[in-house]
Every structure is written in C-alpha cells, then in structure tokens.
Amino acid sequence: MIRSRQVTTIASTVLICSMASAALLIRTVDRARPNATLQEMLYVSSPKLLKRLCLGYDGLLADVYWTRTVQYFGGIHSRGGGTYKLLWPLLNITTKLDPHLIPAYEFGETFLLAKPPQGAGDPQKAIDLVRYGIQNNPGDWHLYYDLAFIYYDQKNYRDAAEAFLRGSQLTDTHPFLKIMAAQMAQHGGDLQTARMMWTATYQTTHDKMIQANAAAHLSAIQVDDDVTALEHLVQEYRDRTGHFPQTFSEMVSAGAIRGIPLDPLRHPYRLESGGRVVVSNPDDLPFLDNGLPSGYIPNPVPKLSPAN
Amino acid sequence: MNSRIFHIATNTFREAVRDRVLYNLIAFAVLMSAAAVLVGQISIQIERLVVINLGLTAVSLFGIVIAIFIGIGLVSKEIDKRTLYTVLSRPVRRWEFIAGKFFGLAGTLVVNTFFMAIGVFAALAYVAHQFVSSDVSILVALYFIVLQFVIITALALFFSSFSTPIFSAIFAFWLFVIGSFAQDLRNFAAMTHSFTRWLATGAAYVVPNFSALNVIGQVAHGESVSSQLILLNTAYAVVYSVAVLSAAVLIFERRNLK
Q1: What is the extent of the structural domain holding B10?
Q2: CATH code for A39-211?
Q3: B61 contacts on A by Cβ (under 8 Å)
Q4: Contact B42/A71, CB-based, under 8 Å?
C-alpha cells in the first residue's frame, strides 16, 4: 500500500515537472524561430480540395478559416504592417467554403483595400471578393454598398454610382443607396460626398470596429474642412497685416477669429510658419490628408478612438 | 415493437450507459462553453454562426463515432462473451435480436443528441441573448443528424453481423466517408460512358447519401428547410436502414454460431 502511494507520488511529480518543462521549452523554441509560425503557411491552398476533405462540414471549416484570416491580418497589422501575402488565399478559401459568410466579404474587402502597411493594398482583389459575394448573395444591399465604396476609393465614380444604383433597386434595401447613387454621379470627388459615405457607414453598422473606423474618417474630413477654412482666414489676416500670424491667439486679439480653433477631438489647432494650419495630436487623428505637422511620420497602425 | 425486441433494446441502452457512452456529453459541454466564450474574442461577427456550425458538427461527429464504435461490437461482443447463446436459447428469433440491438443503440443516440441539443441552444442563448424564428431550422438539422445516426447504426450492425470489430469499424467509417461524397459520385457517373457509367451510378445509389442529410451550413445562415425535404429524407433514411438491417438479418440467420 505504502509502495503504491510512493509510486503515485513520484509519477505525479514527474508528470507535472515534465509538462511544465515541455511548456517552457516550447516557448524557448518559439522565441528562437520567430518567423516560423503556422500562419505563414497554407498546407492546403485549394478551396475545392478542402471542401471535399471536410466531409460536408464546410460551414465550420469556413468559420475556422475566417477566424484564421482575422488572426493573420490582426497579427501583421499589430506588428506595424507587412506584405499580407496569405490574405487573399485565406479569404478565397473562406468564401469558397461558405459563400454566404457576409462578414468575410465586408471585412475582407476592407483588409484588401487598405493601403500598405495598413492593409494589402489590392483593390482589384477587393473588387473580385465583393463581386463573388454579390454573385452568391444577390439580395444583400451591404455588398453593393461595399463594392461602390471600393470604386469610390479608386476614384471610379461612374462604377461606384452604378453599384449604388444596383443596390438601391433591391427589394430589401437602404433608402440611402438611391441618394448616394445620384450624389456619386454628380459630385463624386466632393468632401461632402465623402462625409455622406462615412456617415452612412457609421449609421448602418452595429460593429464597433467599423464605427470607429468611420468616425476616424469623419474626423479626418472635418479636419480637412477646418484646415481649408482656417488657412483661408490666415491668408486674409496676412493680406490685412502684411505678415503671417505666429499663433492663433494673435488672430483672436486682432478679432480675426473668435477663439482658439479646436479639432474634432477638442485639441487646439497649431500654426506653423508660412501660415500652415496643423493638428496638435496627429497620432489621434488617422487618415488625415491636410493638417499634418511638417516632418510628421504617420503611425503605421492607425489609432482608432472608440466610435462614441 | 414486440416485447422481446423491446427488452433487447432496453438492455442495449443500459449497456451503452454502463459503458460510459454519455460521458461524451461532458466533452461536448466543455467544447460548446469554450466556443461560446472564446470565439467572440478571436474572430469578427461570426459568434452565432460558429456556435451553430460547431455545435451541430460536434453533435454529428460525436454521434457517428459512438454509432460506429458501439455498433460494431453489438453482435461480435455477444458472441465473444457467449451471452448470445443464452439469449438465443430463449424464445428469441435472430432477427428480433438484430432489431432489438438496432433500436437500443438508436435510442441511446437519440438521448445523447437530445442532451447535446440542449447544450447547443444554451450556448446560442449565451452568445445571441435571444432566439429568432429561424432557429427552428436547427431542430430540423438535428433531426437530419439523427437520421444519419440511424443509417450508420444499421451499417455498423450489418458489418458486425459477419465481420470482426476492427474490420467492421473500417468498413462503416469508409462508407460514411464515401456517403459524404455521394453527390460527387453521381456527378462522376454522369460524366462517364457505357459500363463505367452503370457501375458508378450503381455504386452511387448503393452507398448511403449523407450529403443530402447535411443542412448544417444552411440552417447556420438562418435558411429554412423545406417540408418536402424533411419528408423525403425521413423516407430515405427509413428505407435505407430497413434495407441494410434486412441484409444483416439475412446474414445473421445463416451464420453458423457453433
């Protein structure tokens, strides 16, 4: 009896120690091979073969591949970006396994469209993905909206207007699409159109990530508007006084503006030499085209504030 | 069902429970809880979809494994333990023995599926916070999974009536795999000519068609299943199982048990 208890104690101790050592060793091995992760490898790249191999349980496999896609994209994105070479094959497999997996089209398109290092920067693949989605889910207006968005991003306003129009003709659609079709056909490149697009995106989704992204773009558009208007006022001040103001306080004292102007996040705008108006916290305002301080290097991973 | 078949079925059920078959429910519960909690954190917008896909796939695979590994031993184990002779020395016909074993294992799988279905709906309630009308289709998918079990049980019993457990397991498992490709087999037959066409078409209709009984992807997306398909699949599963059980009875009736 005592001998049996001894054996149990020794065996338990050896088991625990061995498992702990194995875990520690594999962590060391992982650190020694930082790039040899599973996500850089696709063992089976053919969606057709995978569909056969999963014996009819393709829905679950599609979910696994979609999760893997999100993890792959998120992993590279959080490290500051990269080539995303497996992004398209992973999305292709996911949507071939489950052609009705709408989030894979909606988010996949965003991942593919975003310019490097934030995304793959492959608009043609984004178009192919959403078109495949529409082919398999012709009644879902979100996909027409996404397709129009890609065309809009590519400044292809004619095709964007057509995609909006096709989406607006569905039986169960958002009335906004008809307005967008007309707006896109007439004023494709306006800031007002961009604002309408992002506002619609913000309002038609419940996803916090998409809302945060839309809110960041709306803030960028607001900054664009503010900077244009403020630089116009600075120019007027210069015409009147013969020199550029050093600070906005100087303009306030002169009665040119009523107070220190604030950006959408309530931070004050700054004045640079030559009358350039810039934001004071550019890291908090991603996607800016105007208002970036001189010599500022954008953060490769945009900082998205909560949507609300 | 006559009383002899009923008693054999009840004993088969009890034996399965004694063999701790229902322990798989614990593994299933852990799997569903983990999926419900984790998936939302590592993926985007597919929490509901994963719970339905994973839940129904797990119900199906757990049940098929149980059906095969218990089914293959239903007859051979009784012969090995010599308990079959005790049973057959009483006024029990051989076909009644086969039918009783079949209903016993099918009953075990129905009970097992019932508890796993509760697990699926509990996980779904946790993830989605509310049920929608299209969730009724999940019940249809579960019913089709039970029909799969019925066919697999009949096949395992059929192989068990003349083969060793290991070969019965191999045969039953491969028939399940081939049955999942039944539609492809039919498409292949349509592309061939003359004798090969007859052979491929014959094979496509002889193997069980499991692809028609798999509507997991469909119900996960909230699509309904037509009542016609429910009726046809039910009739198919019943007819196919009866055919396989008849073959099992034919073999077992002629088997020399001495």
Answers
A1: 3-254
A2: 1.25.40.10
A3: 57
A4: yes
